[in-house]
Design the sequence.
């Protein structure tokens, strides 16, 4: 039957194959229930609706709702082709969570005349969140809560509208998600998914906070009203044992639609170094607790993405010694290393072309080139002699990774140096010390195997594979089954100063708050 329908299909008159499709629907429904039959039945019903030019829509009064909140839903159905004398809309069924509202219509549909209605639907208790983020992920693997969801590219909609048509004696059901629609003067009608979120979102302004000393630093908490009724209460921090916050609590009042409020606490750690966790929560006068952070990812070319997670931040109490105070930084492709260095007490000045003069650079304890600086700054090679003059006069220069495309390090480094595509992607790969007594491994922070635990994503990339004897390799490292590389970190004395080239991924490790990466990077700055 379907083969006949395919043979008779004409783009200009798709409804001509409606009799064949209705017969196929009758035959398919007569089959025993099974996975294949049950998965294909909605596809056939959708195809029937398509050849009839059926348009259905269900829109909510707002884009965000709270768990259990009742929202207004408007629906519309239009039939443009087909069998108008034998087509009837029987019912519209709205489903949200465990709530179902069925509206009996029993109305014939005239071609190109819309039938509209409205109802109130109660949302489910589950907040919108990608299902693979619900459980705790393991390394390289997300946890899916149930087999039914695995493989889906996104969560099922939080609410649906099912339109039940009677077409020539057969029921054809078409289901569509309940969406939010808004009309903009310059963009027209824009649809986005309806989402269920906590009434209040609370989270830290930064994912990682560092303490290089046992003194107080500012920790900011952001609180926002997202949906539902206005809220007020007390915000408190949940701290590791022995840590303190001033003030202990702060009051907040959140009106509907109000802007994000930022609350600032002074948090003092204990003296013991380690990695800890901070949490924040809002407790209302009625005893309700909000302790989830909600991220709304908005881009014009994709639907709204909602991510709900715990209101947590990583806290790192570093065991870190440093003497230097001022670092110059040349930003390359873009990284967050300057912010990381400021967090442990360095004054970091961002340098532009006009700043690269040996006499001016003399005021810095070290100068750092950001990742791929030579790849992205066409002016940098022109002032490279000034950078090397700074090193020769006693400065320390740290060059982070570059690719070999368009970059000739033989001409840019003080001694010959050849880049490669060598990398180590296993972040737990052992870092063997070439010379355990090397200054970079002992001063001012004595490094050991523990300093290379907890690294994220990789060890490093684009290591040099050939270099002059003036460079001293610091580590030997390899991925499993690969040849070892000694090019991850090279240090050379040049004049009175030190030149460092490294492919280690400090641009990933420092923002992630990896203690050992800080201790190693500070050792480089302090050469």
Sequence:
């Amino acid at each position: 039957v379907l083969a006949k329908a395919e043979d008779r299909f004409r783009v200009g008159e798709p409804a001509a194959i409606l009799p064949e499709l209705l017969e196929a629907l009758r035959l398919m429904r007569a089959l025993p229930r099974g996975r294949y039959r049950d998965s294909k039945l909605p596809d056939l019903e959708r195809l029937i609706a398509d050849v009839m030019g059926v348009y259905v829509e269900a829109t909510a009064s707002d884009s965000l709702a709270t768990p259990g909140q009742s929202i207004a839903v408007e629906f519309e159905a239009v039939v443009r082709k087909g069998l108008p004398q034998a087509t009837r809309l029987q019912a519209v069924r709205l489903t949200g969570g465990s709530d179902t509202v069925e509206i009996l219509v029993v109305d014939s549909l005239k071609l190109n005349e819309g039938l509209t209605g409205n109802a109130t639907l109660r949302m489910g208790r589950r907040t919108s969140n990608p299902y693979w983020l619900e459980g705790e992920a393991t390394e390289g693997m997300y946890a899916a809560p149930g087999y039914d969801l695995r493989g889906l590219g996104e969560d099922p909609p939080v609410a649906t509208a099912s339109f039940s048509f009677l077409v020539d004696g057969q029921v054809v059901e078409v289901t569509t998600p309940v969406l939010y629609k808004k009309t903009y003067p310059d963009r027209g009608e824009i649809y986005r998914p309806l989402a269920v979120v906590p009434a209040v979102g609370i989270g830290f302004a930064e994912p990682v906070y560092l303490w290089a000393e046992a003194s107080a630093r500012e920790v900011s908490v952001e609180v926002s009203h997202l949906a539902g009724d206005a809220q007020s209460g007390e915000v408190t921090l949940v701290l590791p044992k022995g840590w303190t916050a001033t003030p202990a609590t702060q009051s907040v009042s959140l009106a509907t639609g109000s802007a994000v409020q930022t609350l600032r606490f002074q948090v003092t750690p204990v003296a013991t170094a380690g990695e800890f966790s901070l949490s924040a929560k809002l407790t209302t006068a009625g005893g309700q607790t909000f302790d989830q952070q909600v991220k709304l990812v908005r881009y014009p070319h994709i639907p709204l993405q909602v991510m709900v997670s715990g209101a947590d931040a990583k806290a790192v109490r570093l065991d870190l010694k440093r003497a230097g105070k001022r670092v110059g930084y040349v930003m390359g492709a873009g990284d967050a290393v300057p912010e990381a260095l400021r967090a442990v007490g360095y004054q970091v000045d961002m340098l532009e072309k006009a700043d690269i003069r040996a006499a001016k650079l003399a005021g810095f304890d070290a100068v750092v080139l950001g990742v791929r600086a030579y790849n992205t700054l066409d002016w940098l090679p022109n002032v490279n002699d000034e950078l090397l003059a700074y090193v020769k006069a006693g400065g320390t220069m740290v060059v982070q990774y570059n690719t070999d495309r368009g970059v000739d390090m033989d001409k840019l480094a003080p001694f010959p140096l050849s880049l490669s595509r060598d990398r180590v992607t296993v972040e737990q790969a052992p870092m063997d010390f070439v010379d355990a007594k090397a200054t970079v491994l002992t001063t001012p922070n004595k490094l050991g195997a523990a300093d290379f635990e907890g690294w994220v994503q990789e060890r490093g990339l684009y290591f040099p594979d050939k270099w002059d004897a003036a460079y001293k390799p610091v580590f030997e490292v390899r991925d499993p089954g690969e040849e070892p590389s000694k090019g991850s970190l090279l240090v050379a004395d040049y004049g009175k100063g030190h030149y460092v080239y490294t492919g280690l991924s400090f641009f990933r490790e420092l923002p992630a708050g990896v203690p050992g990466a800080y201790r190693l990077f500070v050792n480089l700055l302090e050469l």
Q: What stands out?
A: The first strand starts at residue 55 and ends at 60. The chain has a mean pLDDT of 93. The first helix runs from residue 2 to 8. The CA atoms of residues 278 and 313 lie 5 Å apart.
